[in-house]
Structure formats: structure tokens, C-alpha cells
């Protein structure tokens, strides 16, 4: 009760304080400052039942530092009544009655969440994009090509533009902007391309809107499950999971070549994007944990160090496909509220993370980042500083950096 009324107060406050922000373009290569957050699984609650930290969708999307909310997950493609199952942890507790049943209490296990549908539309009015993630770590069922195509039809009927008499639409008439494939088991590899391809053809059915196809691969590259789909179908972005793996973000170091799976490997993904990905302009997101959680989740890196990694990954010449940062998940971000805005400030250039030498003769407020990424052995602590700067000073630092790089090039 308390939670519910707080949430609706937050909706009102959000509606009053937010004007419609300029729409960002998810696929434009110019947008390298995008943030996405997964919402629905309430990851903190899953490990700590005394912490109900998942707020409603509107509260999540109206955060000015968030562009995309990825609703997670459709956990199965075949539930009761032959319809996919959506699991949103504590966010929606009612179910559809079986279509055509004379028994009003003959419930399916298909969530009926018109209030979330309303909030999807409200989020979209703010210029935010709402995606839906399919799969998740627990999804393991294999499918034939025919089943995969049939499921694409069903997902579109449930979450795409409303058409005809389809009886089970969890979000009512709201229309999902994008579909994210988060299949993590090898059994899901075959025919995932058939599913993705079929879903993509649906996008042309409603020309007045843009729809997106994305995936959430693990960081070892190429992804063991999704690569077949990613190399044969056009995906707009990958939210790469730089956690729970040897290549997790904690293993980043300024000096390391990013060409192996055993440490941070955005460079491998960049090469993959330009050589193997079907869409050579696919956006690469650095996917991170928004807070540390108890085992088995590993790979949390504190904000100041993520800022350092993100800053280094924004280099246009090294990572032209870089698109931004994605966060697992919304409840984690609520436990660690400085994380998303702190990263966003780096993405948008409000905050510059620079090498000390680049700012030595520049008069700005500066703060040392004291803990090096990956432990003391990888990077001298004082190497990077965080500077809160005005636009013109940020430009000076950028120019100095450029001169440094040119200088190095001349020397070697
Ligand atoms: C977004 O950017 C893409 C790629 O540059 C472009 O094709 C598309 O027209 C843009 N969309 C809008 C709505 O501006
Ligand atoms: C993100 O980048 C685009 C392209 O450079 C820019 O137009 C937009 O204003 C930026 N967004 C923010 C929030 O700074
Ligand atoms: C669980 O959450 C409660 C309330 O926020 C907190 O006091 C407690 O320390 C948390 N437990 C763990 C294991 O994180
Ligand atoms: C959603 O998934 C969680 C985690 O797998 C599970 O514990 C829970 O029972 C599921 N909820 C519903 C309504 O199916
Ligand atoms: C749902 O029921 C209606 C009428 O009972 C029927 O016309 C419709 O075809 C059914 N839809 C599906 C998908 O079964
Ligand atoms: C009750 O619902 C199930 C699906 O959940 C369906 O198979 C069954 O036919 C329904 N029974 C009646 C009496 O409508
Ligand atoms: C990295 O991991 C992927 C996925 O497991 C594997 O296919 C690939 O061969 C590995 N690459 C290297 C260089 O070890």
C-alpha cells in the first residue's frame, strides 16, 4: 500500500517536472551517449527480500539520465494456453482469463498489466524508448525454425501494434519500441536467426513508428548463442554483459590490448562489428551492474572507475560503434543512485575524465580518482582525475588530448 501510493506520487511529480525532451535517435551513429536500464526482475529483491527496491516503470523511465528501459523478461515462449510467459517479479499480479472460457476464474498464467501499458505510453511521450527483453538466464528451450517464426508472430501480436481480436495483450494497446534477445543457453542458438528475421519483417507493418532489434550477449566474443542471428539479421545494438565473465569490466586496464576473452574486450566487439556483424553500424553498449550484489553475480565496478572505462571507450577512432552504457538492473540502480547519472555525465561530456598531464596547465576544479581499476597493479592511482568543467574547458582538454596522440604518433 505504502509502496503503491509513493509510486503514484512519483508519477505526478514526474509529470509536473518533466517536459518532453528532444527525442534521441537510437540508431544514429552520432548518438554515443545513450543509457539503457533493465527493469522488471527486481534483482535486489531476488537476493535480499527485505529490500523492495523496484519502482514502477514511469518512475524508472522519467529519470532524466535514462533513455531506454528494457522490460525483462519474457521467460518462456510456451506457457498455458500456448502463449508466451512474461515475468515482472512484483510489478503485475493479475492474469488473463482463458479466451472463450465460461468460467470467469479460469485464469491463464499470462499477466494482464494495463497500468504498465499506460505508463509505457507516458514514458514514450517523454521521448523514452521501451524495449522488451526475451529469454533471460533461465530460458533453455530449443525450437524448430517453424516454431521460431510462429513465436515471432505471437510476440508481435502480444506487444506490437494492436490488430484484430488477439485476446492476450499484457500491456493493452501500448506498443513496445524494441525487442531484445537475451538467450544465454546453447540450446537456444539454432533457429534464433529465424525468429529475429521474422520479427524484423514485422517492423515494416507500421511505417509511422520506428522499431528496434537488439541483443544482450555475454562479453566473450563472438557470443556462443546469439552470433548466428547477429551475423545474418540486422540488429541495431548489443547490450554486452561485461559481468559474470572473465572479460568483465573490472579487468579493464589502460594498457591492455582488448583482443582476448580473458580481460575487458570491447576492442574485440568493435572488430566483430565491422567484420562479422550483419549490421556494420550496430551500436555497442557497455553493459554493467548498477550495484554489487551477493554471489553468483560478479564484476561490479564502482562508479569512479566505470567513468574511467567509459571515458576511454568513447574514443571515436578506436570504437566508432560505441553507443553508450546499459545497467542491470533498475532495482540495483535504486540501491546505488549516483551510478546512472554519474555515467551519463561522462557520456554527455558534462564530466570529463582526463589524464593528469592533459589538465596540468588548465585551471579547473579537479579530484583524484583514488582506486585504480582492477587493483593497484594495473594502473597508477593518480593517473586519471575527474574534472567538473565548463564546455569551453572540456574542449581545451580534448584538443590537448588530440595533440598528445599526434605527438605520440610522430615519435613512434
Ligand atoms: C536516425 O538515424 C538514422 C541513421 O543515421 C537515420 O537513418 C534515421 O532517419 C534517423 N531517424 C530520425 C527519426 O531522425
Ligand atoms: C547526445 O548526443 C547527441 C549527438 O551528438 C546530441 O545531439 C545530444 O544532445 C546528446 N544528448 C545529451 C543528453 O547530451
Ligand atoms: C538487505 O536489505 C536491508 C534493508 O535495506 C539491509 O539492512 C541489509 O543489510 C541487506 N542485506 C544484505 C545481505 O545486503
Ligand atoms: C518470476 O520469476 C521468479 C524468478 O525465476 C520466480 O521466483 C517467480 O515465481 C516468477 N513469478 C511468476 C509470477 O511467475
Ligand atoms: C478469442 O475468442 C473470440 C471469441 O470467443 C474468438 O473470436 C477469437 O478467435 C479468439 N481468439 C483466439 C486467438 O483464440
Ligand atoms: C481453462 O483454461 C485452460 C488454459 O489455461 C484451457 O486449456 C481450458 O480449456 C479452460 N477451461 C475452460 C472450461 O474454459
Ligand atoms: C572467445 O569466446 C567465444 C565464445 O565462447 C569463442 O567462440 C571465441 O573463440 C573466443 N575467442 C578467443 C580468441 O579465445
TrEMBL record:
UniProt GO BP: carbohydrate metabolic process
InterPro entries membership: GH, Glyco_hydro18_cat, Glycosyl_Hydrlase18_Chitinase
Keywords: Glycosidase, Hydrolase, Signal
Residues in GH18 domain copies: 33-350
Highest taxon above the source species: Eukaryota
GO MF annotations, alphabetized: chitinase activity
GO cellular component: extracellular region
Signal peptide positions (record): 1-22
Protein name: GH18 domain-containing protein
UniProt organism field: Orbilia ellipsospora
Lineage, uppermost ranks: Eukaryota, Fungi, Dikarya, Ascomycota, Pezizomycotina
